[in-house]
Design goal:
Elements: E1 4-7, H1 8-17, E2 20-23, H2 27-31, E3 34-35, E4 39-40, E5 44-47, E6 52-55, H3 59-66, E7 73-76, H4 81-92, E8 98-102, E9 108-109, E10 115-117, E11 127-128, H5 137-143
Parallel strand pairs: 1-8, 2-4, 2-7, 7-8
Antiparallel strand pairs: 3-11, 5-6, 9-10
Amino acid sequence: MGPERIDVKEARQALEQDAVYIDVRTEEEFAAGHPQGAINIPVGVPNPLLQRFDPNPDFLDVVRAAVPEHTPVLIGCRSGPRAEMAANLLTQSGYPKVRWVIGGFHGMTDAFGIVVAPGWRELGYPESRDAGEGVGYQSLRRKAGKA
């Protein structure tokens, strides 16, 4: 059984309690705005040559160094697909309390542009642009001994 899918409203409630929100978007996306209280651990790294994302080889190690295994974890991205992939990785690696956020930061639309899951920004929830110590990927990589 895979990780549970929740919407942005449920994610905000969980974040206000005891959950850790891991934003798995790129460092640039994270720095441009993210849910207040989130940390950044990209699940993929851009590969401009092939115009795709390649898996981040340090993803699991950095998560393990930043988030204790039995902590409730929320995984979010731009709209949902990267979050679902990252949530599956964490669940398979032994994290028992993982949920992924459909709608993510910017919301999810269907092929016709109709919003099927509103995002954090669209709902007007508190945002941050802090990508520094303790929340930004580079500082979390250092904590994991990967820098």
